Amino acid sequence: MFYLASASPRRRELLTQIGVSFELAPVAIDETPHPAEAARSYVERLAQQKAAAALASLDDPQAVVLGSDTSVILGEDILTKPDSTADARQMLRRLSGQPHQVFTAVALLSHERQQVISVATEVVFRALDEAEIDAYIATGEPMDKAGSYGIQGKGAILVDHISGSYSNVVGLPLTETAALLKNFNIPVWA
Ligand SMILES: Cc1cn([C@H]2C[C@H](O)[C@@H](COP(=O)(O)OP(=O)(O)OP(=O)(O)O)O2)c(=O)[nH]c1=O
């Protein structure tokens, strides 16, 4: 059986989009970055930990589990989900007019083996004014999303352009995920 170790509605929708069948096995882990932890190491560690926690909670020797993590990287800083509207405002101010990177890691684990990959997409916001930032926060959309925006929702209005995988920004890089699933004999396009 194939399990998605995620509470993210985006990841459910993205996997369903490419015709993958799965059961949900969401987990909660500590998402605090280690001191001076590099972005790629951070997202790969969390994806692996989410998948490992789900695998350990399942009574299924045949289980294959997918864990994933998405973070926004601005310079040296890792922007995760905001913990308040003030935090969201601060992140959106910093992202205004700036190129940044979105990293998503995907870990596939079974009791026999594991593979972890990560993908980076560059996103460039146009310059935002305070009124726009406030109006966007008032929609409620930023609060459960890394970097305080959702490119697939109303946040699309903030984005000037991207370079790289779009689905990676939303929460799962589909091309690379399909390749990983193939390695574990999980069918896509079903
Ligand atoms: C940048 C960006 C992030 N996101 C979302 C994807 C992720 O759900 C979320 C980042 O938080 P994550 O910790 O990666 O995921 P999650 O807590 O939502 O779910 P789980 O850990 O159970 O898998 O931000 C968007 O939906 N759109 C975007 O444009």
How would you portray this structure in words?
This protein has six helices and seven strands. Helix 3 crosses helix 4. Helix 1 links the parallel strand 1 and strand 2. The protein is of the alpha/beta class and 190 residues long. The site of thymidine-5'-triphosphate has 25 residues, from helix 1, strand 3 and helix 5.
Question: What topology emerges from the helices and strands here?
Answer:
Elements: E1 2-4, H1 9-17, E2 23-24, H2 39-57, E3 64-74, E4 77-79, H3 85-95, E5 99-109, E6 114-125, H4 130-138, E7 159-163, H5 166-170, H6 174-183
Parallel strand pairs: 1-2, 1-3
Antiparallel strand pairs: 3-4, 3-5, 5-6, 6-7
The chain binds thymidine-5'-triphosphate.
Bound molecules: thymidine-5'-triphosphate
Q: Could you list the spans in which at least 5 consecutive residues all have pLDDT below 50?
A: none
Helix content, binned percent: 25-40%
The CATH class:
Alpha Beta
Radius of gyration: 17 Å
Distance between the termini: 15 Å
**Topology pattern, helix = H, strand = E:** EHEHEEHEEHEHH
Could you tell me the CATH topology label.
Answer: Maf protein
Number of strands: 7
How much is the average pLDDT? Answer: 98
Strand content: 15-25%
The CATH architecture can be given as Alpha-Beta Complex
Structural class: alpha/beta
Kindly give the count of domains: 1
Main beta sheet = 7 strands, mixed
Label the overall shape: elongated
Please report the number of helical segments.
6
